[in-house]
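Thread: Newbie trying to understand structure tokens

Hi all, I'm a second-year student working on a class project, and my supervisor (Dr. K.) asked me to get a predicted structure for one chain before our next meeting. I've only ever worked with sequences, so writing a 3D structure as a token string is new to me. If someone could post the tokens and maybe explain what I'm looking at, I'd be very grateful. Here's the chain:
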Amino acid sequence: MFLKPCLGALCAALLTAAAGCASVSGEPPGARAKAGAPSPGVARPDAVEASPRHVVRPAAPGAGKAAPATGPRFEYLYLPPLSPDLQTIYERVREADLLRRLPAVQALDGMFALPRRLRYITAECGEFGAFYQPGAAEVVLCYETLRTLYERGQERQRVLGLVGDDHPLRYVRASVRFMVLHETGHALVDLLDLPVTGRQEDAVDQLAAILMLRFAELDETPEEVIENLRLAANWLLSDSTGAYNLDAYAASHALGEQRYFNLQCLIYGTDPERFAGMVAARDLTPGRAAGCEREMRLVSRAWLRLLLPHLSPGYEAYGEEARRYLDSGVPAGRSAAMH
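---
Reply by user tm_fold:
Sure, no problem. This is what the structure looks like when written as tokens:
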């Protein structure tokens, strides 16, 4: 059961989500990246080669901005739950304005000329999950998801013997960021009518990873950015059994293990030298690692080419940065076609 003391800690974490992540500690060997913190508001070109990192300054709760002439900005709505057990989570999420404070969501709000508004909602769903509703153009995060993620973070801390009481809270924040960005990817594909030639679930996983690596909170170091994505990847293994039926193989999502290693490859591909320890720690196989730098570049370039034509007026600087990156080419190396 999800005990009341744990619920209180989760709510405290949601209140502080806008202020930045806590320092990380107690991770298993091989989980840490070695990097220095940039000055606030300054991009570090070497932090993530495929997509330079930008710090996102928190917006004041409820602060509105003038809508661009080409399309509406995002909307945010926190729906009250029917279940009393979820009431405190709802109140704290609403008070923290959690959805608006997710750094990549802040950065994307107004960036693209959408044909209609995109709404972000928290709601009681009756089950764990987050999803995009095309007809309503809504990204929905379930209150049950926050509760379950906290429990999984607690279990991970117990199994790994991690010291301190902040790990479950970081696990929630990191996983929520990835899940919401994954669904945002579905929304952009739908609203901008973007072509996707492969499995869409894999494509939006890639976009979510790129956005998490690119847009950081004000107090977040490059090391914390990477570890947040690694925590989000761990969530994909939470239901892993190693035994699957035909429905699992035929599902629209790849298996959790495959999604996990896909994200590890993107992390490794940002800087193979810095993350060489991932192979030794068995977070990635040598065969897959050999092509990850190229894979990350190809994925980043593909998404840039898809999104660049849809930038709103006022975002020309992003367009110029993207074009410089696209002109830089793709490093030689093993590609999927060569396997």
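A couple of things are worth pointing out once you decode it. The two ends are 47 Å apart (CA to CA). Strands lie at 54-56, 75-78, 119-123, 130-133, 138-142, 215-217. Feel free to ask follow-ups in this thread.
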